[in-house]
Amino acid sequence: MIGVCVLGSTGSIGRSTLDVLARHPDRYRVISLAARSDVAGLAQQCLQFRPARAALADPVAARELAQQLRTEGCSTEVLSGPEALAELARDSDAAVVMAAISGAAGLPSTLAAAQAGKRLLIANKESVVMAGALLLDAVRRSGAELIPIDSEHNAIFQCLPPVWQVGQRSAGVRRLLLTASGGPFLDWPAAAIGTATPEQAVAHPRWSMGAKISVDSASLMNKGLELIEAAVLFGMPPDDIEVLIHPESVVHSLVEFVDGSTLAQLGSPDMRTPIAQALAWPERIPAGVEFLDLLKAGQLNFRAPDLERFPALALARAAAQAGGLASVWLNAADEVAVEAFLAKRLNFGDIPAVIADVMDQFSGGQSQDLAAVLAADAEARARAVQGIAAPHRLYRLGGRAP
Ligand code: NDP
Ligand code: MG
Q1: Which atom of ligand 1 is nearest to 41's Cα?
Q2: Distance 10 CA to ligand 1 centre (A)
Q3: What is the mean pLDDT of residues 381-392?
Q4: Is the CB of 45 under 6 A from ligand 1?
């Protein structure tokens, strides 16, 4: 039996992970579950999977959960506070950790799992973007196994030879081609994109995901973060990573080799495939996913991204090229801007304008340790808040006052 810790279990990836695990009770045992504040969701999962421990980052919610589980006669021990998540990630009973918390909040627990030598299934792309070098260093020192869950990176992982090691450019690889669905605004004119509502932004045409990543998909910032993630995980310079718009979301990414071969991974747009692949690798297990019907798909289309209507992608590429703490600043500014947009305090078209304003103030620096990363994250967040409060600064990239 393989013990599994699921961080972010109440979210979209967390629920898909538990769905796959529930199909293989003979192979996997859920050791621990963690989330932020969703008492009802975590209580239901505890009753179904009976983990030894569960944690909520919000202490008030954790008390409520403990109470509820006692009433239901469930013996799961409840931990509380952000540091409890890292404790669960280190638990020696869990050989596998699914890092599926959204945003920068996932970094400490993801890093803890890497330091503890786990098989680390990494969905939390923000921790790769913010602290890639630290994460890879921890993986190398501890002998952890890092397997990407993000569908594009998992696709690339599947196309690389088994001898590939995380963080290193695989011999013979010429380019990586990341596919993007293009999101809900793919064919919208710039003016309509500028004033799109949160409801329109989270209505993704192909994938069902959490709110933050859905908004990022609509602005193409998700692809920008993924470009940085791919550069880190696969040891590639950003210039050797291309983005292709592929509205059908059937080809999840491609690897071009020096001999002229291009390998791709295809499948239905369902995250249970990369989750099952990473759980069982190098074996394969059923994931409950609908099999791909290429006759039904009919046509597969590809086109270049439009950087004028989707400037976030260019901002991310520039941050990837700048290196150091630039991607920490980019990620922090994006998180603040997306949160303001979801709260209807910012226009959709101002999201890249806020990020551009913050990146204009980027003062350099290296991510030598976690403290440096967290300090840069805090500084960039403060500047993003200032930018949102002073809309006259959001003149770039077509930004307007809210
Ligand atoms: P969701 O918003 O659906 O879920 C987020 C999860 O993280 C929830 O369990 C939430 O708990 C928890 N969480 C959020 N903030 C905190 C915090 N401060 N402390 C502890 N737990 C917290 O996100 P997704 O599942 O969509 O995405 C998760 C990660 O996976 C993201 O990094 C995303 O970029 C990545 N990813 C997602 C894909 C997808 O298809 N959804 C595809 C590729 C990558 P609670 O419910 O209590 O708030
Ligand atoms: Mg992805």
Answers
A1: 46
A2: 8
A3: 92
A4: no
Quote the CA–CA distance of 33 and 30 in Å, as a whole number.
8
Instruction: Tell me, in angstroms, the distance from the centre of ligand 2 to residue 166's CA.
Output: 18
Q: Which domains are present in the chain?
A: 2-149 (3.40.50.720), 173-400 (1.10.1740.10)
pLDDT class of 402 with cuts at 50, 70, 90: very low
Dist. CA 66 → ligand 2 center (Å): 34
Test site for ligand 1: of 12, 42, 271, most ligand atoms within 8 A of the Cβ: 12
Sign of CA dihedral 210, 216, 219, 223: negative
Q: Tell me, yes or no, if the pTM score tops 0.70.
A: yes
User: Ion ligand 2 — residues with CB under 5 Å?
Assistant: 150-152
* pLDDT for the residue 14: 98
Buried b / exposed e over 142-163, threshold 16 CB at 10 Å, is eebbbbbbbbbbbbbbbbbeee
What is the percent of the chain with per-residue pLDDT over 90, rounded to a whole number?
A: 94
Cα 152 to ligand 2 centre (Å): 5
Closest listed ligand to the CA of 126:
1
pLDDT digits (tens, 9 = 90+) for 322-335: 999 999 999 999 99
Res 391: pLDDT: 75
Tell me, using a 6 A CB cutoff, whether residue 213 lines ligand 1: yes
- Label residue 307 exposed, middle or buried (CB < 10 Å: 0-12, 13-18, 19+): middle
- With a CB cutoff of 8 Å and minimum separation 6, the contacts of 187 are none
Instruction: For 47-80, give one letter per residue: b (16+ CB within 10 A) or e.
Output: eebebbbbbbbbeebbebbbebbeeeebebebbb
d(CA 331, CA 334): 5
Arithmetic mean of pLDDT over the chain: 96
